[in-house]
């Protein structure tokens, strides 16, 4: 009888040890899966951040916009990359030249410098640009309809826009209303800004519309 009890006791101990080992092995098997999920969740944000640079024209290029509704709506836009995260643009409409500097962050393209300059301005260094304070965002993740920032709202992320010289797909459309003027900006991946549209309410039934539309990039 005692021998039988001893055998049963040993059997119970062996079963308990085996169960503990199985449980430990299961826990060790689960932990790497949790770590992998965390890593995968970070990848989309990293990829989106990297793609923000694609919303600018090529370095050293000059884009030409045709204006309608106002004599100063036509302008040229020269793009210069100061470094990997700072991009300068010189906008000239024939009456005034404006230098703008943008910074690429993890989640947005932000304007950090804007000033009227002469027709051949001196550009800030990358080190100087890095010290500029943020003025406002130009584009901000996530690119989802309804997302708002600095008064702008994403109206569309898959618009088709015919500029007269090209048809752009998957265009991001931003809209902002201030007083009686509603402004829309259109951004295409690989090009950047392709159209600006200002619509002003008037006493007449027909609104007053001013547009600037990309024609060529050289």
SS strand fraction: 35-45%
Q: What is the terminal separation in angstroms? A: 99 Å
Number of helices: 2
Portion of residues within helices? 25-40%
- Overall pLDDT score: 84
Which sequence of strands runs across the widest sheet?
6-5-4-3-2-1-12-11-10-9-8-7
Number of strands: 12
Overall geometry: globular
Order of helices and strands: HEEEEEHEEEEEEE
Stretches with pLDDT under 50, minimum 5 residues: 1-43, 45-50
Oligomer: single chain
Description:
This is Lipoprotein. It contains two helices and twelve strands, in the order αβββββαβββββββ. 25% of the residues lie in helices and 44% in strands. With 218 residues, it is α+β, with helices and mostly antiparallel strands. β1 and β2 form a beta hairpin. It has a twelve-stranded antiparallel beta sheet with strand order 6-5-4-3-2-1-12-11-10-9-8-7. The N and C termini lie far apart (99 Å).
List descriptors:
twelve-stranded antiparallel sheet; Lipoprotein; 218 residues; alpha+beta
Topology record:
Elements: H1 2-51, E1 62-68, E2 75-81, E3 86-92, E4 97-104, E5 108-117, H2 126-130, E6 136-140, E7 148-149, E8 152-162, E9 167-178, E10 181-188, E11 192-200, E12 208-217
Antiparallel strand pairs: 1-2, 1-12, 2-3, 3-4, 4-5, 5-6, 7-8, 8-9, 9-10, 10-11, 11-12
Biased composition (Polar residues): 36-47
Region (Disordered): 25-47
Protein name: Lipoprotein
């Amino acid at each position: 009888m005692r021998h039988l009890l001893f055998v049963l006791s040993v059997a119970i101990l062996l079963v308990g040890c085996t169960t503990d080992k199985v449980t430990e092995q299961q826990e060790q098997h689960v932990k790497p899966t949790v770590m992998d999920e965390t890593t995968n969740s970070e990848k989309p944000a990293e990829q989106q951040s990297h793609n923000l640079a694609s919303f600018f024209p090529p370095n050293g290029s000059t884009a030409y916009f045709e204006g309608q509704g106002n004599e100063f709506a036509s302008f040229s836009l020269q793009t210069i990359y100061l470094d990997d995260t700072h991009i300068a643009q010189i906008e000239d409409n024939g009456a005034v030249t404006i230098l703008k500097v943008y910074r690429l962050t993890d989640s947005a393209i932000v304007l950090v410098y804007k000033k009227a300059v002469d027709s051949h301005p001196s550009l800030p260094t990358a080190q100087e640009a890095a010290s500029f304070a943020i003025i406002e965002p130009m584009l901000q993740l996530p690119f989802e309809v309804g997302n708002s920032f600095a008064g702008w709202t994403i109206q569309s992320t898959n618009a088709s826009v015919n500029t007269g010289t090209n048809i752009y797909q998957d265009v991001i459309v931003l809209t902002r209303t201030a007083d009686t003027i509603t402004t829309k900006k259109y951004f295409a991946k690989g090009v950047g800004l392709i159209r600006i549209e200002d619509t002003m309410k008037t006493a007449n039934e027909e609104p007053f519309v001013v547009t600037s539309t990309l024609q060529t990039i050289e």
